[in-house]
Amino acid sequence: MQGILYEEPSAWLFLLVSVIMGGWLAWMAGRAIAKTWRPIWQLIIYMLVLGLFVRFIHFALFEATLLTLHYYIVDVIVLMAFGFAGWRYNLTRQMTTQYRWLYERTGPFSWKARESAGKPV
Question: Contact 30/86 with Cβ under 8 angstroms?
């Protein structure tokens, strides 16, 4: 996978910077966007900017190439996966706690309307 996903000599460096550190930051950004009820397109913009910072960490600490489109795209894909997961998880949590009479959780990333939501009392 070296040369396709990462350019460092070890996959552990890619996992540390892009997946663990970058993934945590992306999850928290998705969480913040969900908690403030912002639209999903803002998450995309934030992940594109965060991808630049992740590339800089690779460059500054591990002597990777700074301006390379290939590895930037790989980093942004990883970040968007974590960001969208964090956004959806927290949005599901909000919908099922703030509107518990209308929605019930069906999984960590989804909800559905309650059976009694549409019936008059």
Answer: yes
pLDDT band (50, 70, 90) for residue 2: low
Local structure of 99: helix, strand or coil? coil
Residue 85 carries which side chain, given as an amino acid letter?
Answer: A
- Residues 57-75 have a mean pLDDT of 91
For 90-121, write each residue's pLDDT tens digit. Answer: 999 999 999 999 999 999 999 999 887 666 55
Q: Dig out the tokens for 47 from the structure.
A: 């992940």
Among 64, 70, 83, 80, residue whose Cα is nearest residue 14: 64
What is the rounded CA–CA span in Å between residue 69 and residue 52? 10
What is the Cα 121 distance to its own chain's centre? 40
At residue 32, the pLDDT reads 97
Q: Which of 40, 35, 29, 43 is nearest to 98 (CA)?
A: 35
Q: What angle do CA 103, 80, 93 make, to 5 degrees?
A: 20
Residue at token pair 């913009």: 45
